[in-house]
Amino acid sequence: MPPAHGGPLPESIGPYKVLGKIGAGGMASIYRAVHPKDGREVALKVLAMHLASKSATRRRFQREADTLLRLQHPHILPVYDIGEADGTPYFAMRLLSGHTLENRMHDSLLTANDAAYILRQIAGALDFAHEQGVIHRDVKPGNILFDDDGEPYLADFGVARIMGADVRTSMTGDFIGTATYASPEQCRSEGITPASDIYSLGVVSYEMLTGTPPFSGANILALIKQHLDAPVPDPCDFDPTLPPDTAGVLAKALAKRPADRYSTATVLSQAIDRALGLEQRPDGVEDAEWLYEGRPLPPRPPEGAPAPEPPPVSGEPDTAPHDAEPDDIHEIDEDSDANEDEPPANRVLAAAPAPHLPRWARPGVYASLVVSIVGLLVAGTVLGTRLFASGPSLDATTRDQQLGITIKHPGGWSAASTHGALLFASRGSSLVLSDRAVPPEGPYTNASLVIVVQRLDPVSVFGVPEACRAEIERNPAAAFDCASARGAVTPTYDDFPSAYGHGVRLDGTLPPTRATYPIILLPGEGDRWLAVIVAHWDGYPGTRDLFDHIAQSIRAST
User: Fold this and answer.
1) Whole-angstrom distance between the N-terminal and C-terminal Cα of the chain?
2) Of the candidates 33, 60, 94, which is a domain's last residue?
C-alpha cells in the first residue's frame, strides 16, 4: 500500500518490501526497498498519493520513468522496473549508497583532477541523452550521484524534455529547472536545445573548480538577471592556482548565446582537460583550435551592459508556441537583387537619392502629409481603444476562505483553488481565475488569461531582509524601500492604492515569464503579502486595465 504524503512508513509497495525512507520532495518519496524474489535492493521512487489523481503530475512522473528506461548508459542512473500499487505509480532504480556531488562539494573543495574526471563521465552521459533526443533541463550537483567506488551518475530526469514531442506538463510561462544552474534561455522561458544543458554543466564545472557558482543573487529575480546580463567572473579570482586558460573555457561554456557555447558536453569536458594541462598541446596549435573548438572566444560583455539578444532558437519551446515573446520573432525581407554569397547581416543597401520636387508640387505633398498624419491618429485612436479597452465588467464575486478574501471577476470565468506549490507559493491556498476552465495547477494553454491570487513570503521571494520585518508587515512599498536602503536588490514598482491596503505594482511583460510576471502586491496577514499575478496571457484584450480592476476589487472577507 503506497503511503500517504508524510504518513507512516509502509510495509510494502507493490512486490517490494520497504526497508527505510531515503528522502522526500514535493512530488515523490524515495524508499530503500528489496524485491523478495531476487533479493536486490533498490531505490523505489513513489509518486505522492495526493498527487496521483493529478493528470499533469502523473504524466510527468511516468515520463521520467520512461525516459530513464530508454537511456541505458554507464553513467546514467538505471531504472529496473516500473509499476503501480493501488493506483499510485512507482519505479525502481539502482540503489546508490554514496553521496551527491552537492554533498561532496559541501564537505571539501574538489581537486582539479577529480573535477575533470567527474565532468568527463557526466558529459558522456549528457551527450548520450541528447543523441536519444532528451534534454535534461536540470543539470546540477544535487542530480549527480556517486556509488561506493566514487563513480558519478546523472539522475533525476523528472523535468526532461523529449525533443520533437508535444509535451506540456509544466505551467505555461514558468521556467523549468533550478535558477542557480538555469541557462539564459531557460530564464526567459524560451525554446531550448542541448546547448541549455551545456550551459548548466558549465555552471557545475565552475562550481567544482572554484567552490562557488558563478552567479548569485539575493532573490530569484536578481539571480536571473545575473544569468541574462552579467559577465562570467574570472575563476582565478576564487582559486589563483587555476591555469589562466580556465577562465576562457568557462566563459565560452557560459556564453549568453547558445550558438557561442561548445557544441557538445564532451567537447566542453575536453576543453577543461586542456585548460587544466591534463592534455599536452601539440606544437603550433593555436588557442582557438585547442581550447575554443576552432572559433574565437566570444567577447566579454562590459560590466553593467545587457547581454546581446540571442538569435532565434530552433529547439523545442518550454512553453506553448503562442507564449513566445513577440520581440524574439524577426522577419527579414531581403532584396531580390542582394548578393546571395554575402551574409544578410553584412549586406549594404545603397540609399536611393531623394527626388527633386518642383516648387509648385510641394503644397500638395504637404497637404497629403497632413491628411496621412490625421488618418494615422484616427486609426491609432481606434486601435488603442480596442487594445486597451477596460474589458468585461466584473459581475461575479468569489469568496476564498483560505485566503480570507472576496474578489470580483468577469461573469463566466472559472474560479478554482489549489493547495499545492504554485508560482511563488510553496504552501497554502492559491485562487486561479481564468477566462476558460483550466487545471488550477496548469498547464494553462487552453485559456487566454489566467490570474493567480496567493500569499507569498517576501523574504524568500524578493530577498527582503529580516531587519525589515516591521516594514514587511506595514506594506510592500515600505519593505522594498527598507530593503533598498540596506543594499538589497529590489524590483522597480509603482504605488497601487486599493481598499485592501497600500500596494505596489510590478509591471512585468505580456506574455509573462517567471522573471517578468505582472504582479500586484497587497499587504497581507502579518509577514505574508497577498499577490495578484498574471500567470498566463494569450492576447486577451484590455488585460492590464482588467488586471488592475480585479486587484482593486479585493476585500477582506467577513
Assistant:
1) 42
2) 94
pLDDT per position as a tens digit, 242-251: 999 999 999 9
Burial tier of 77 (Cβ tally within 10 Å: 0-12, 13-18, 19+): buried
Query: 298 falls in which pLDDT band (50, 70, 90)?
Result: low
> Is the same domain home to 107 and 83?
no
Angle at 184 between CA 178 and CA 188, to 5 degrees: 85
Same domain, 74 and 17: yes
Given 81, 86, 138, 395, the catalytic residue? 138
Same domain, 77 and 108: no
Q: Does residue 329 form part of some domain? A: no
For residues 261 and 126, state if they share a domain: yes
Please state, rounded to an integer, the average pLDDT across all residues of the chain.
78
pLDDT of residue 160: 61
Contacts of 55 (CB under 8 A, 6+ apart): 439
Sign of CA dihedral 127, 132, 135, 136: negative
Task: Give me the pLDDT at residue 17, please.
Answer: 94
CATH number of the domain at 173, please: 1.10.510.10
- Whether residues 36 and 175 share a domain: the answer is no
Please indicate, yes or no, if residue 153 is contained in any of the structural domains.
Answer: yes
Cell of 121: 563521465
The CATH code of the domain that includes 50 is 3.30.200.20
* Separation CA 242–CA 235 (nearest Å): 8
Whether this model's pTM surpasses 0.90 = no
Is the per-residue pLDDT at 254 higher than 90?
yes
Is the pLDDT assigned to residue 193 strictly greater than 70?
yes
Whether the Cβ atoms of residue 234 and residue 243 lie closer than 8 Å to each other:
no
Nearest to 431 by CA among 410, 456, 458, 402: 402
Domain check: are 81 and 164 in the same one? no
Set of cell numbers at residue 430: 492559491
- Its domain, for residue 21, covers 12-94
Summarised one tens digit per residue, pLDDT across range 114-134 is 999 999 999 999 999 999 888
Task: Kindly state whether residues 540 and 437 are assigned to the same domain.
Answer: yes
Q: In what order do the strands lie in the sheet with 16-24?
A: 12-13, 16-24, 28-34, 41-47, 88-94, 79-85
**Residue 180, in any domain of the structure:** yes
Three cell numbers, residue 73 = 548508459
Half-sphere exposure of 282 (CA within 13 A, CB side): 4
- Distance, in Å, from the CA atom of 227 to the CA atom of 224, rounded to the nearest integer, reads 5
Q: Is 304 within a domain?
A: no
What phi and psi, each to the nearest 5 degrees, are found at residue 265?
-65, -35
Q: What local confidence, expressed as pLDDT, does residue 273 receive?
A: 96
Q: Which pLDDT belongs to residue 3?
A: 53
pLDDT for 2:
54
Query: Which of 94, 128, 143 is at the close of a domain?
Result: 94
Question: Mind listing the pLDDT tens digit for each residue in 421-447?
Answer: 788 776 678 999 999 999 888 888 889
**Cα–Cα distance measured from residue 467 to residue 454, given in angstroms and rounded to the nearest whole number:** 24
Q: How many domains does the chain have?
A: 3
Residue 80 sits in the same domain as residue 209:
no
Mean pLDDT of 225-229: 90
Is 138 an annotated catalytic residue? yes
Tell me how far apart the alpha carbons of residues 207 and 118 are, in angstroms, rounded to a whole number: 12
Residues 350, 340: Cα–Cα separation, whole Å: 16
